[in-house]
Amino acid sequence: MSSRRPNSLANTSCDSESSHCPPYQEQHPFYQEEPDEQEISLLQENSSSHYSTPFADPVAESDSHRRYTLHDPGPTVFGAPEYEPVQSSGMKTRAGLNRYGTRKINLVKGAVLSVDYPVPSAIQNAIQPEYRDAEEGFSEEFTHLRYTAATCDPDEFTLRNGYNLRPAMYNRHTELLIAVTYYNEDKVLTSRTLHGVMQNIRDIVRLKKSEFWNKGGPAWQKIVVCLIFDGIEPCDKNTLDVLATIGVYQDGIMKKDVDGRETVAHVFEYTTQLSVTATQQLVRPHSDESTSNLPPVQFIFCLKQKNSKKINSHRWLLNAFSRILNPEVIVLLDAGTKPGPKSLLSLWEAFYNDKTLGGACGEIHAMLGPRWQKCLNPLVAAQNFEYKISNILDKPLESAFGYVSVLPGAFSAYRYRAIMGRPLEQYFHGDHTLSKRLGKKGIEGMNIFKKNMFLAEDRILCFELVAKAGFKWHLSYVKAAKGETDVPEGAAEFVGQRRRWLNGSFAAGLYAIMHFGRIYRSGHSIIRLFFLHIQILYNICQLIMTWFSLASYWLTSSVIMDLVGTPSSHNKEKGWPWGNDASPIVNTFLKYGYLWVLMLQFMLALGNRPKGVVTLYTISFLYFALVQLYVLILSFYLVVGVFTGGMLDFNFDDGLAAFIQSFFSSSGGGIVLIALVSTYGIYIIASILYLDPWHILTSSWAYFLGMTTCINVLMVYAFCNWHDVSWGTKGSDKVDALPSVTTQKDNNKRNFIEELDKPQADIDSQFEATVKRALAPYVEPEEDGGKTLDDSYKNFRTGLIQNMNGLEITPFITSLPKVELHVHIEGTLTPALRWKLAHRNNIPLRYPTYEALLNSYKITYNHRRELNGDNGAPTFLETYYEGCQVLCTEDDFYELAIAYFQKAKDVNVRYVEPFFDTQAHTKRGIPVEAILNGFLRAQHDGAKQLGVKSNWIFCFLRDHPVKEGLEALRSALPWARTKDGKGKGLFHAVGLASNEYDRPPGLFEEGFLLAKEVGLHVTMHCDVDQKDVVEHMHEGIFDVCAGAGADRIDHGLNATDAPELMAALKEKNIGLTLCPHAYHRRQATEVLFPKIRKLWDEGVRFCINSDDPTYMHDVWIDGNMMKVYEYCGFTKSEMGKLVRNAVEMSWADEVTKTEILDELERVLGVEEKLIS
C-alpha cells in the first residue's frame, strides 16, 4: 500500500511552524482560538503504521459492480452510503454520478434502518492513535458514521423497538449529557457553541485529582453531546457543512421514509476530535502527548425531518435518547450560547456535591463583541445590565430559598431522575405533536392562559420539580458557570422576543401561585417550606406590581413633573428648570405626548407586526427614554433640594418621630429619595458588593433610560398579543428531495434494503468541497427590512386611527355588533392563504416570492383600461380574478370562507350576506358542487363555531354572457333557500357583480324573474362614478323585476347626483350598501364624505360595509365605520342607527335580528352611562 494518504482536506499540507502555506491554506488559514493549541494537517504525507488506511484502494477492484452482503450480529450493519444525485434539503451533490457496486443492509428487527457509513479519510486520520487503536472492538466509532432513520415518535425510540445508541451499545455509563437545541442559527453561532462545549469537555478530561472522572474508564466516554436540529427546511446549510467537516453529518444518506413509514428524525452518531471555531478555523490534534488537544467527543446529531418546536426537541432528548443513555446530569444549551471555561464542570460539580439538587443554572451574560463595542447599542447595553442584575439580585435570592423560578433553557442543567415522572409529563403537555394523543390535556385542548404558560415551559418544569410529591429536590444558581449568548440588537426582534417572555412568565407565575399547595405533598423540610412561603409571598407582590406598573410609571412621572415644575408652596413658588411660566407648559406637553405615545403602543400592538413598524417603535423608544431622562433629572433635583433645604423643609428640631413624619409626608421628598435609592441605588450597591461593577459603567445608562420603555412598550405589546401563542416559527414539509427506501426479503425472510456502495475515493473528493464551504469566511446575509405590503396597509390603518381627533372611537366601534351586507367572498382572499393554496394545488404563480405576491395586491386601477389608460399595471378585476385561480377544491372554498368568518368574528360581526359567483370557477373546470358545498360547510361552521350567521347572495357576472349566468343560477338553485323549502339554504338572493361597463341591469331581467319565482331576493351593483350609473340606478329602482324594482342597491352613492333617485329610494324604502374606503381610494375626503352625509340628512337608508377588503388596503368593516364616524361627523347615537339600518335591511330571520338589536342596545346603554 502506498504511504501517501488517500485524501486530505485540500490535498496539501501546512507546516504549523512555517509562514508560507499552499494556496488553499492561504485562503483558509487553520488556527485555534488559544495560542497553546497548535495544529497539524489532517493530511499525513509520511504515513506510519498506525495511520495506515483501513480502506482498500478502489482502483484495485476489477469488478466495479461487485455485490456483497454484510452480516452484523449486533443491532447495526456497517457499510457505505447510498449515492444520491439530489441531496437533503435541496442541496446537490458536488460530484458526478458514477457506477458503483451494491450491497444489502439488514433492518434491525425487520423495521429499523440503522447503518454505518465510512467517514472521509481526512477525518479518520485526525483521530489520535492512542484513542483509535486503544479498543479494537469500538474502532468503528472513529471510522464510521452511524445513521438511524427514526420512523417513530420520540416515546417509541426504545431498545424494545430496535433503536439503540452507541454509548449504550458499548456499555458505557453516561454521566453528563450535553444537549444543544437549534432552529436556524448560522454557522458562526453554532460553531461558537460547539467549540465552547468541546473546550469544556477538555477541562473535565484534564482533571488530575478527580475521584470520579478518572475511575471506571476514560472521562470522555462518560460524556455525550447531543445536537437536536428543529427541522430540515429552516436549518442553515452552511451549518451542516460545519458538522460534516468534523464528521458528525454526511450528505446524501438520509431517507425520507422506510416502507412508507415517514422518517421523523435522522440520527447520526460519531466520535470526533475535530472542532471549528466561530472564526471558521479548524482545530485538530497536533501531537500524541499534548494536553491542549481536544479529547474525543461522542456526538449524537438528531436532525428532525419537520419543524415541531423546541419543546419537541426536548422530548427527543429526554424521552428518547436519555431513556437509553440514562445520564445522571443533563445540560441544556441553545445554539449561540457559548459556555465559559470550566462552566459545565462547575454545573456538574454542583450536582455531584449536593444529592438533593434537582436543577441548576449558571450566569448568562450578553455577547458584547470585541472591546465591548456592542454596549454602544442601547438595546444590547440595557439587556446586558438586565442580565447582570438578575444574576446579582434575583437568582442568588431565589437560590437561597431553594426555588429558582426559571432555569433558562439557553443554559441550565437538570438531574435526569429528578425530572422523570410528573415534571416531564406536565412539561410535554405543551408539545403540539402530542395534541391528538393527549386530547383535552394537550395543547389544542388548553385555554389561552395555559397556552401562554407553555411559552415559558421551563418555568413549569422548575415548579413541577420542586413540588414533586415525596421528594425534596431544590434548584440552585451556580455563579462559577457562565454562558455568553447573543441578544436582540433591533427594536422589532426585541419586542417580539419579550412578547413570548412576558406572557409566558406571567402565565407560568400565576400557575405556580395557584398550585402552590402541592408543595405540601413534597418531601421538603419545615425550614425549606418556611422559606418557600416567603418566596411565594414575594412573587405575589411582584406580580401585583407588574400588573399595575403601567399606571405606576405614569403617576410617578407626572407627580415628579408637578412637584418640581409647577410653582407652589412646596417648592417656594419656583418652577424648575424652565422657570415659573415655561415649566408647567413644557411638562404639560411632555405628559400629553407621553399619553399619546402610550396610546400609539396599543394601536401598534393590536394592528401591526413589529417588523412592519420599526420606525414607530424606534421613535417610541426614544421618546420614553427622553421622558425618563427628564424625570430622572427632576428627581435628583428634588432630592438635592431635600438635603440643601432650598426647596423642601423637613422637621429636624422636634425629634426623630417628627422627622420621620415629615420625611414620609405626601409633600416630602423622602418618598422620592427612597424610590430613587430602591430603584437605582440598590443596583450600584449590590454590584459593588458582588465585586462585579463593570456593567454599571458600561450599560447602566441604557437600562435606566429604558425602564419606562420596558413597561410602556414591551408590556403593552405582550398583553395586547396575549392571543398569540406562537414562537414565530412554523412547520415545514419540504422534504421531497430525500429518497425513500423499500425493503425486500431474503431467503431467511429477513427484511433488507439494497443500496449503492460508494468508494472511499469518491467520499473523500466530495468531502473536500464540503470543507471549503465550511471554512469559508462567513458572509452575513443582507437583512430584509421585513416590511411587506400587508404591513404598509396596516400602517395606513394605524396612521388613520392615530390621527383621528377622538381616539376613544376605537373601542366604541369595536364594541358595536355589526352586520355586513356587501362583501365579496373572493375579495377576502388574503395573500397568505393564496400563497398556501397555490402551493397545495400546484398552481403556478407569476410571483416568485411571497413579497412579490404582496406587491401585486397594490390596486392602481379599478375597472377597464379603456377608462383608465394603461401603464402595464393590472386592473382591479385582473388582480381579483387571478387570485381566484388558486381555489380548486371543496376544502379551498371552505378555507376561504371560514377565514373570512374568523376575521368577521374578530371585528364583532354577527351576521353577514357574502356575495359569491360560480362562473369564474366553473369556466376553469371546477365542479359547482365543490364550490357550493365548501361554502355550505363554512356557513354551518361559521355559525356554530364562531357565532357568525350568514345568508349568501349568488351573483351574475355582468361582463359574461347572460345565458351563461342563467345556466349558472339554474345549476346552483339546489343550494338556494327557496320558498318550497327544498334547497339546502346557502343563498337567498341574487345580485350583479364584476364590470358593469355598458352592461345595464336590465340585461339580466330573465334571471331576476327566475329568482323572484323561486322566492329569492334581488339586489344589484351600481358602482360609483361609472358610465351611465344614474341610468342603471333608475333601472334598478323602477324597471327590473317587472317594474317592482330591486330590493336593495349595492353602492348607489351617485344617487346624490339625482334628487329624484334619493326621493325614490326613500319612497320605496330601498337601502344602499355603501363601502366608503373603496371610494376613498379615488376620491378626496372633502368630496366623498359630504355625499355620504347628504344621503343621511336626506333620510336615505344605508349601511356601511367593506366590499373587497384584502384588495383594498386590508380595511375591513370596522375601518370603514371609523371613517364614516370621523369624516361624516356622526355621533355615537347615529352610528348605532347605522347598525340598525343594516339589521333592518338584512334578510336575516327575526330571531337573529332581535338578538343583534338587543346587543346593540346594551352597548349604547353602556356608552351613555360612560358619557354621563
TrEMBL record:
InterPro entries: A_deaminase_dom, Ado/ade_deaminase, Chitin_synth, Chitin_synth_N, Metal_Hydrolase, Nucleotide-diphossugar_trans. Its main location: membrane. Residues 1-89 are annotated as: Disordered. It is found in: Cell membrane. CDD domains: Chitin_synth_C. It is an enzyme of class 2 (transferase). GO terms for biological process: chitin biosynthetic process. Signal peptide: none annotated. It is a multi-pass membrane protein. This is chitin synthase. It comes from Aspergillus oryzae. The lineage of its organism: Eukaryota, Fungi, Dikarya, Ascomycota, Pezizomycotina.
